[in-house]
């Protein structure tokens, strides 16, 4: 009997496909079967890689998105917080525009849906960790450029919250204009903070 060895590329494809589906339809409206189909993966493979089912796959999709964004942020933040902000905005602009306003952020999508039980699902815990990681990256960059600690933390939270909310507004309005307005104001706030 010939058994193929599990492929990390296949697992990552399933996770990336799940992140895309969640970014478009939300978690509650997406079944594990649909996530597998979207990733062009057999349902059996999906359960092989994610034996705990939908919540495990959703948690991995959130973490995958979080690290994917964080890698880009880290790279751009080397040039400073304004460059990091521009990269963060450009990333979401591309997702929203390329999907014809059908996709947003899977981290936000998981965060805003009502959990099926009173317990906090692992995907929501992962989403909180992702938001914290993004805030920490931005905050550290602001502090490196002279911002006071508390001011940097508050501004980093504002940036993440504003961008996430604006992505949702862009999808609803089917316009990129809210992102442009938010970008201008956030950049002005960052420049005012790092000058002081």
From TrEMBL:
Keyword annotations for this protein, in alphabetical order, are:
DNA-binding, Transcription, Transcription regulation
The UniProt annotation gives the DNA-binding region as: 31-50
- The segment(s) forming the HTH tetR-type domain are 8-68
Alphabetical list of InterPro entries matching this protein: Homeodomain-like_sf, HTH_TetR, Tet_transcr_reg_TetR-rel_C_sf, YxaF_TetR_C
Protein transport recorded as keyword:
no
Pfam assignment, any one: TetR_N
PROSITE patterns found in the cross-reference section = HTH_TETR_2 (PS50977)
Protein name, as recorded: TetR/AcrR family transcriptional regulator
Question: What species does this protein belong to?
Answer: Streptomyces coeruleofuscus
């Amino acid at each position: 009997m010939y058994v193929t060895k599990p492929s990390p590329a296949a697992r990552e494809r399933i996770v990336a496909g799940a992140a895309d589906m969640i970014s478009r339809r939300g978690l509650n409206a997406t079944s594990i079967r649909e996530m597998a189909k979207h990733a062009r993966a057999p349902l059996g493979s999906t359960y092989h890689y994610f034996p705990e089912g939908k919540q495990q796959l959703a948690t991995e999709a959130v973490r995958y998105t979080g690290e994917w964004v964080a890698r880009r942020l880290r790279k751009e933040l080397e040039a400073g917080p304004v460059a990091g902000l521009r990269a963060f905005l450009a990333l979401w602009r591309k997702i929203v525009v390329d999907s014809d306003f059908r996709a947003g952020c899977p981290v936000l999508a998981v965060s805003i849906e009502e959990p099926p039980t009173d317990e906090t699902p692992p995907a929501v815990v992962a989403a909180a960790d992702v938001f914290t990681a993004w805030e920490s990256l931005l905050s550290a960059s602001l502090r490196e450029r002279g911002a006071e600690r508390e001011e940097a933390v508050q501004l980093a939270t504002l940036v993440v919250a504003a961008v996430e909310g604006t992505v949702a507004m862009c999808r609803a309005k089917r316009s990129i204009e809210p992102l442009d307005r938010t970008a201008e104001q956030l950049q002005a706030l960052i420049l005012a903070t790092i000058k002081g």
